[in-house]
Amino acid sequence: REGIDLVQMQQLVVSRRKIYPGFQTLLVTNPEGSTIAIESERADGTAYRPPSNSIADREYFRKAVATGQPYISEVLLGRLRQNPIVTIAVPIADKTGVVQGIVGGSLNLSYFSHFGENYQTMREAEIIILDRLNRVVFSSVTGFTPLQDLSKSPLIVATNASTDPVFEYTPQK
Questions:
Q1: What b/e sequence results for 43-58 when a residue is b if at least 16 CB atoms lie within 10 Å of its CB, and e otherwise?
Q2: Which DSSP category does 35 fall into?
Q3: Which of 46-60, 78-92, 143-157 has the lowest mean pLDDT?
Q4: Which pLDDT belongs to residue 166?
Q5: Where are the beta strands (DSSP E) in the chain?
Q6: Which region holds residue 68: left if phi is over 0, alpha if psi is between -120 and 50, else beta?
Q7: Are 146 and 137 in contact (CB under 8 A)?
Q8: Torsion angle of alpha carbons 151, 152, 154, 160, nearest 10°?
Q9: Spatial separation of the C-alpha atoms in residues 8 and 6, rounded to whole Å
Q10: Model confidence over 57-71: pLDDT tens digits?
Q11: Above pLDDT 70, what percent of the chain?
């Protein structure tokens, strides 16, 4: 918004992140990629305001600025917490269409762990959420690591062989 000062911008970022805590980080940058407002979350879930820094080297910033269009990344591991995230960047343009920065966020995909709570009555149900490249985003099954490639696993082979999008899979023992 025009006429907004940096203190107000920081307050907006903090208040918006509180609305939906699934964002691990929310930020606003200038056209060069320096953060002018940022709110992040520590590993223990408490709020953290890291010092201003540059994100000009990040793909999500470069793509949003270059195209003038919103950008959503593939699933990746966050730099600080090493958990699966998706980064989202939306360019901020002036009235003439010149990009003045971005509003960005890191969507914390570990919140999928709450998804399994709805299926606790199904005692033997196991949940594995994969990205489009068959990499683990969330698993209720122990032994899987974030972004582990399951492309060649028996589960994915069975999925690809099935003509029915809904099927039952029983692992071989």
A1: eeeeeeeeeeeebeeb
A2: E
A3: 46-60
A4: 77
A5: 23-29, 35-41, 47-48, 71-72, 76-77, 84-93, 99-108, 128-130, 136-139
A6: left
A7: yes
A8: 60
A9: 5
A10: 999 999 999 999 999
A11: 83
Which tokens go with 67?
Answer: 């195209």
162: helix, strand or coil: coil
**Which residue has better confidence, 150 or 116?**
150
Q: State the amino acid at position 99 in one-letter form.
A: V
For 69-73, which contacts have Cβ atoms below 8 Å and span 24 or more sequence positions?
Answer: none
In the chain, the amino acid numbered 170 is T
Cβ pair 145, 137 in contact under 8 A: no
* In the predicted structure, residue 7 carries a pLDDT above the cut 90: no
Sequence-ordered list of residues with C-beta below 8 angstroms from that of 116, at least 6 positions apart, any chain: 125, 127, 140
Residue partners of 97: CB distance under 8 A and separation at least 6: 68
Give 117's pLDDT tier (boundaries 50, 70, 90).
low
3-state helix, strand, coil in the chain (%, to 5): 25, 30, 45
